[in-house]
Amino acid sequence: MAGDVIKLLPDSIANQIAAGEVIQRPASAVKELLENALDAGATEIKLIFKDGGKTLLQVIDNGNGMSPADARLSFERHATSKIRESKDLFVIKTMGFRGEALASIAAIAQVEMKTKRAEDDLGTHLIIEGSEVKKQEACSCPVGTSISIKNLFFNVPARRKFLKSDPVETKNIREEFIRIALANHEIFFSVFNDGHEIFHLKKGNVKQRIVGLMRKNYSERLVPVKENTNYLKINGFIGKPAFARKSRGEQFFFVNNRFIKSSSLHKSVMTAYDDLLQKEYLPFYVLFIEIDPNKIDVNVHPTKQEIKFEDDQIVSTFINAGVKRALSAYSVTPTIDFDQEVNLGFANKSTSGNSFHNSSSQKGNASKSNSWIGGGTGSNFKPKTEIRKDENWQEMFKTEEIDLSKPAASEGPVEENTNYTTVPSSLNSEPQDGEPSTKGLQAKTEYEPFQIHNHYILFHMKSGIVILDQKSAHERILFEKFLKCLEENTSNTQKLMFPTEVKLNKDDALLLNDILPEISALGYEIEVGKKDTFYIKGVPIDIANINNYESIFDELIAQFKENSAELKLDKRVNLARSMAKHSAIKSGRRLAVDEMKALIDQLFACDKPYIAPNGRKTFVTQSLNDLDRQFRKK
């Protein structure tokens, strides 16, 4: 009979296994070290890291410090000063409490600690590598604790090779730091990355901390939230709808000063913004919830970022009510402009030329009418209800009579004995595997194209009709154009009379520096200033008529980050796709006939006209046979 096969794991192996759960990346170690510093009563904390935290992570605090015995014991597994009996697990108010963090870190890194209490003459110097204590001796050091983590995962190469690039790991560290800094605005923080100070945050209130972490212009974007009840208290700030963005990352919930993630609470905030935001846009919010610790359970997830409420519904209801009340109190609601004429999408001769560049004055001039195709407006969404003037109310009920027997003047080459023109593009070439066939699609020039609800463009083809999505079509056009510029460096730049200053937050500034060569290849001329400030001296000629370049950069970087998080795209493809999405004309824009024709022509000159960069269709077709079947003629 075989001998016993079950053995107790050595502590070093057990700690490495625990490290896999607790320390997944450098940002995880940063979180644990910062939380320990806060629990030690620190009022000043310095974070230093190099090479995305892979080479060095160091946290220096002025907290209580530790005795020689405590310093050694802190690296033992399940050693903690926060818990004495089981009931303490359910009333936890400190940040770190499981007693696994330092033991896990010491198992997979080279750790050096210096710590001293105020009542001690000398401090303690401790060096540990792979759970093995290499040195412990008395030393001279200031009150508090300094702990350095060098060469994370040095003895677990399989884990180390799965770490991301330095910029990605740096971004993760920044995100973790921002969460902790927001929740502890009364603490001074300083952060150094590769020798450069990237955050210098003085003690202050929540609003001052938000502005310090994001950027100065956030001050005008914020609306305070305050809701006090017998069950819980809510305070913090939400963003005005006009400054909402498509990317995540600026939404923060804190319960008893602990950052959490909650889909139900997020939904309650989004519901409060109903009718104020375009689809896919997300508001900024930093909301603090104070609640009896007995009414929550923080032990449902290893990272402690998910908690369980005694009553989820009541918390969500209070969040929703508080956000709604804040929006209402500060008049952040849709406005009604009685001086604007409504546009319901009816064909109307008096307005058919209206578009973003007063294109009615360009009719008959093809070169001018096509100029808008290169770029969109890039403007922020501002909810607005338009009402037609009283004296013109009758016009709302008029429709333009269409005489199908009277064709418009034909433009372009016309095939002999037909009224159809074949679009000269790859549209008529053989499709690749898996691509839809568009062979033989022909645009009928006998009738002008027209818009449907300022969203779609309808035009004739030889055997039926084509319905084109104007936004998706324009994204495809711009995507291929921008990608070509990046590959061939053939962009044109329009010099600005006065440089435009754009100040970004730390993360966005780091990202922009990384993609600056590609941005320049698209036609931007940008000078890097100090403290995350950039000066735009030139722009792609296609968007030279746009004024709000800061908004354009916000949208561009937000879209680039969103693509990076969700898709594995080549940097150039990501940038071209991001530029196309935020520069394309928006749904709801009224187009002149010449602009519609230009859009159609340029789309069908693309390599892949049938699909937008995001994978959606740019157009659909309806054959006459399909229509006949709909009306039961066949």
| Strand order across the largest sheet | 5-4-3-6-2-1-7-8
- Structural domain count: 3
Radius of gyration in whole Å, from Cα?
31 Å
Helix share, percent: 25-40%
Q: Pick out the low-confidence regions.
A: 334-440
How many helix segments?
16
Instruction: Report strand %.
Output: 15-25%
Based on CA inertia axes, which overall geometry fits? Answer: elongated
Describe this structure in words.
With 634 residues, the protein is an alpha+beta fold. It folds into 3 domains: 11-204, Heat Shock Protein 90, CATH 3.30.565.10; 208-333, Ribosomal Protein S5, domain 2 (2-Layer Sandwich); 355-634, no CATH class. 29% of the residues lie in helices and 23% in strands. The protein is built from 16 helices and 26 strands. The strands form 7 sheets. An 8-stranded mixed sheet has the order 5-4-3-6-2-1-7-8. A 5-stranded mixed sheet has the order 9-10-13-11-12. Strands 20-21-22-26 form a 4-stranded antiparallel sheet.
Features:
23% strand, 8-stranded mixed sheet, 16 helices, 5-stranded mixed sheet, Ribosomal Protein S5, domain 2, 26 strands, 29% helix, alpha+beta, Heat Shock Protein 90
Map the helices and strands:
Blueprint lengths: L10 H12 L3 H14 L4 E7 L5 E6 L6 H6 L27 H7 L2 E7 L6 E7 L2 E8 L4 E7 L6 H4 L5 H18 L4 E6 L2 E6 L4 H8 L8 E7 L3 E8 L11 E5 L2 E3 L2 H10 L12 E7 L4 E2 L10 E2 L2 H18 L5 E3 L28 H4 L14 E3 L33 E3 L19 E3 L5 E3 L3 E6 L2 E6 H19 L4 E11 L2 H16 L3 E4 L4 E8 L8 H18 L4 H13 L9 H11 L15 E5 H7 L4
Parallel strand pairs: 1-7, 11-13, 16-17
Antiparallel strand pairs: 1-2, 2-6, 3-4, 3-6, 4-5, 7-8, 9-10, 10-13, 11-12, 14-15, 18-19, 20-21, 21-22, 22-26, 23-25, 24-25
Helix pairs in contact: 1-4, 2-6, 6-7, 8-9, 11-14, 11-15, 13-14
